[in-house]
Amino acid sequence: MKIMTAVKRVVDYNVKVRVKSDQSGVDIGNVKMSMNPFDEIATEAAVRLKEAGTASEVIAVSCGLAQSQETLRTALAIGADRGVLVETDAELQPLAVAKLLKAVIDKEQPQLVILGKQAIDDDAGQTGQMLAALLDWPQATFASHIEIGDDKATVMREVDGGLEVITLKLPAIVTTDLRLNEPRYVTLPNIMKAKKKPIETVRPADLNVDPAPRLKTLKVVEPPVRKAGVMVPNVAALVEKLKTEAKVI
Ligand code: AMP
C-alpha cells in the first residue's frame, strides 16, 4: 500500500509574525520556516505504518516555492521514501492545493492520503475536505488514531462530545489531529540519508492545473493590543470592578 502525505512549508510556530505596513499580509522575509506541525504528524503516521509493514512506500508532496524542497527533505528524514515538489511562485489557496494534490494522486494512485487538519499560517482547515470532494473519496478528519485493515481504515476522531470511531473504505483521505502521535526527533544520520532520496519537481502546468487564487485578501490586521491588568486586593473588590467597570455581571 502506497501512502501519500501533504507537507506545507510555513512560518515556524515559534516566530511572532508581523503584519506588513500595507496590510496586504504577513511579513515572511527573513523568518524561520518549517514544516507545518500537523504535517509532521501526518508524515510520522505514514512512516509508522510503513515500519509496521502495513505500507510499502511513503511519498511526501509539497506545493509552493522551490524552498519547499527543504520541507520535503525533512519529510524524507522522518522516513518518507521520496518527495514530489509542485513548484510555483503563485499564491496557493486551499482549492488550488487540493487540485494539485489530486493531479499527483491520479498519477501515483496511493491508497491512503494523510494531510494535516490545518496549516498554521492560513488556518484554513479546508484542503483535506476539498481534496476528498474532488476525488469523491471517503474522509476522516481530525484523526487521533488510525488502523488499517483489509481495504479499510478505522479512524478515531476527536469530536466535541468525546471520541468517535469510524471505518472507511480505502482509498481514503485522513487529516491529523494533535494527539495522533508525537513526531520523532530527526537525527543527523537520517538527515544525511534523506539527501540521497529522490525529489521529483513538476509545475502546475505539467499537471494541467490553474492554481490562480479564487479569493482576494482585503486586509490583514494585528490583533488588538492587550491592556495591562490591575491587581485587586480581594474578591469583593474584584466583583465590584466586574459590576461597575467591566459591566459583565
Ligand atoms: P489548510 O487547508 O490550508 O489549513 O491545510 C490543511 C492541510 O493541507 C495541511 O496541513 C497540509 O497537509 C495540506 N496543505 C495545505 N497547503 C499545502 C501546500 N502548499 N503543500 C502541501 N500540502 C499542503
Automatic annotation (TrEMBL):
Heterodimer of an alpha and a beta subunit. InterPro entries: ET-Flavoprotein_bsu_CS, ETF_a/b_N, ETF_b, ETF_beta_N, Rossmann-like_a/b/a_fold. SUPFAM superfamilies: Adenine nucleotide alpha hydrolases-like. Belongs to the ETF beta-subunit/FixA family. It comes from the Bacteria. GO terms for biological process: carboxylic acid catabolic process. Keywords: Electron transport, Transport. Gene3D superfamilies: HUPs. Its cofactor is AMP. This is Electron transfer flavoprotein subunit beta. The keyword Flavoprotein does not apply. GO terms for molecular function: electron transfer activity. CDD domains: ETF_beta (cd01714). The electron transfer flavoprotein serves as a specific electron acceptor for other dehydrogenases. It transfers the electrons to the main respiratory chain via ETF-ubiquinone oxidoreductase (ETF dehydrogenase). PROSITE patterns: ETF_BETA (PS01065). Residues 23-211 form the Electron transfer flavoprotein alpha/beta-subunit N-terminal domain.
